[in-house]
Amino acid sequence: MAGVTLADVRFWYPATEHPALDGVSLAVSPGDVVAVIGSVGAGASTLLLVAAGLAPRVTGGRLAGIVHTPPAGIVLPTPWTQVSGMAFSVWDEVAFGPANQGVARDEITRRVDRWLGRLEVTHLAARDPATLSGGEMQRVILAGVLAMEPALLLLDEPTAELDPAGAALVWRLVRELARTEQKTILVATSDLDAIPDFATRVVWLEHGRVRAAGPPADVLSRDDIWTEGPGSTTVAGVWRRAGLAAPVPLTVAGAVARLR
Amino acid sequence: MSGRHPFTLLALAAALPALAWTLPAPWGPAGTFAVALMLCLPARVARTALFTAAPFWLFLFLLHDRVTAVTIALRLSTMIASFVWLVAILPPARLVEALVAAGYSVHFAFLFAATLSAVPALRARAQRIVDAQRCRGLATRGGPLNRLRALRALALPLVLSALHEVDERALALETRGLSAGARRTPLAPPPDSAAERVVRWALVAGCVAGVVGRVLWRV
Which residue spans within chain A are E strands per DSSP? Predict the structure, then answer.
């Protein structure tokens, strides 16, 4: 299974002079989960579109640099725009992708049942997709993309519509997919508290450039991520405000261990 | 009717306007319009068809003499009623399944189905926009002036949001494998019977006969 290689990637949206990505280099191996963070407009979503092969092919614009990615599945931040609009039921909606890939019907059935179960939405199988709530829709779209069995999974704010339990389920799934199925996963997220639980690395983007990259403990404990970046985890914030000594813990468990 | 094969429904919706334009007026178009309207009744879209056709009647009577106006209006009304009936009775997903099962490319199938789904999709979007504007205090009910103001406030967001969604929809369908290049697997191909195939061919033959008859009659 191949990983992702981006070398000195620059990307300009149509009719813009400033690149949305400016010299981004990144290598992600199978089994790695990379969390892409940054302030609004930093280029995280664009990075995922480039890795998915959608930019510039579908979005238009101009791309420079080297992009090597395996077949990718991407979950966009607005699930209601990712619905096919051509399915009677949630089951058909999840089957939409593998059917387009020409997968055999028996295999489609196996995959759809599997991913509906993993995302805990089997009970919605007969529902009309148009009647789903935002959170249900987000799980269904994620199931639909996973049913296509991409080697590279790109998730753009995959928990934006989910309640805390739903978000925890997705992050657990992301971790399992990387560990057990060796998927290569890139996640653009503003759920910074969850990052230490699922990510093996963090890439902090700023104005389309990589400002810092490394393990979550290194990137999210930096001082400048508070002043010039998107911030860090709640625990790191409390630790910092309390004026406690470095290294900064990112999770409650880490803080408890440090205090003991 | 909704249980019939999508191609049969398509054939009927195409044959009625074809016959309306080829059969001698006024009884030919009157007959096809009556049939189209009868199809609309159980689908509960007869009123929609009549309301959609009404402005054409008005303008045709302003522009033409009575006989010509009635003839053209009946033909246009047959087209409108047939299309409204087809949109109401044929879910695009079933049409896609039928086209894919018949060996057509998935892109062609979606192009066809998207045309059918455009009307209800735009209507639902317009309703959402009206609801959102009501929340912000826009009065959409009342006299003609109020309604005109509401229409103005609806038109621009409707068109702009529809154009914006084209980009999102393209991205979304790409992400769901629509450009995979492989032949799509039909999930539930609609059953087709010999009797329905006969009906379809009979409709085609009827249309051809109508064209031939029209040519001969003109000669």
Answer: 4-12, 21-28, 33-37, 62-68, 72-75, 152-156, 184-188, 201-206, 209-214
- Domain at A167, CATH number: 3.40.50.300
What is the token pair recorded at A188?
Answer: 């653009």
Q: How many cross-chain Cβ pairs, A to B, lie less than 8 Å apart?
A: 85
Alpha carbon distance A51, A203 (integer Å): 14
**Structure confidence at residue A1 (pLDDT):** 52
A100: chain B residues, CB-CB within 8 Å: 106, 176-178, 180, 182, 184
User: DSSP secondary structure string, A186-200?
Assistant: EEE-S-GGGHHHH-S
Which stretches of A79-121 are DSSP H helices?
90-100, 105-118
Q: How many domains does chain A have?
A: 1
Report the distance separating Cα B29 and Cα B69, nearest Å: 12
**Can you tell me the distance from the alpha carbon of A125 to that of A95, in angstroms, rounded to the nearest whole number?**
11
Q: Distance (Å) from the C-alpha of residue B159 to the closest C-alpha of chain A?
A: 17
List % helix, strand, coil for chain B (3-state, nearest 5): 80, 0, 20
- Within-domain flag for A255: no
- Distance from the Cα of B16 to chain A's closest Cα (Å) equals 27
- Please answer whether residues A112 and A97 qualify as being in contact, where contact means their C-beta atoms are separated by less than 8 angstroms: no
- Mutation target among A13, A46, A57, A84 for the B interface, most CBs of B within 10 A: A84
B117 in contact with chain A, both atoms CB, cutoff 8 A: yes
User: How many angstroms separate the CA of residue A113 from the nearest CA in chain B?
Assistant: 14
Question: Considering the entire predicted model, what is its pTM?
Answer: 0.80
Asked if A125 has any chain B CB less than 8 Å from its own CB, the reply is: no
Distances (CA, A) of B42 to A99, B4, B50, B74, B85: 34, 15, 15, 21, 10
Task: With respect to residue A210, please indicate whether it lies within any of the assigned structural domains.
Answer: yes
CB count within 10 Å of CB A96 equals: 29
Whether A235 is covered by a domain: the verdict is no
Asked, for residue A126, whether it belongs to a domain, the answer is yes
Q: Give the pLDDT mean for A189-216.
A: 96
ipTM entry: 0.74
Whether residue B175 and residue A52 make contact (CB cut-off 8 A), yes or no, is yes
Q: Which domain holds residue A54?
A: 4-216
Q: How many CA atoms lie within 13 A of B181 on its CB side?
A: 0
**Coil vs helix vs strand at A137:** helix
Give every residue of chain B whose pLDDT is below 50, as ranges: 219
